[in-house]
Design brief:
By secondary structure, the chain is mainly beta. The chain is about 10% helix and about 30% strand. The chain has 1 helix and 5 strands, in the order ββαβββ.
């Protein structure tokens, strides 16, 4: 019998070039991003994209809505 090793990837939230560390790995990804709302108010209306496993990190892209300047 062989021992299985389970590696849990580190979650990283990416907002453009900004990398946000996972503030609480026990929360769901959307709830973890909500903890950054005080520093980044536009995250209140943001959505998470499909995660990608890159190395030992799980990258969640943060999709923000475009700001409309006309009507």
């Amino acid at each position: 019998m062989t021992d299985a090793i389970v590696i849990r990837p580190t979650r990283v939230f990416k907002m453009g070039a900004i990398r946000l560390a996972d503030p609480n790995p026990t929360l769901a990804p959307a709830e973890a991003v909500k903890l950054y709302e005080k520093a980044y108010p536009h995250l209140a209306h943001a959505e998470l994209g499909e995660p990608q496993l890159i190395g030992e990190e799980l990258h969640f892209p943060i999709k923000t809505h475009e700001v409309k300047t006309k009507g």
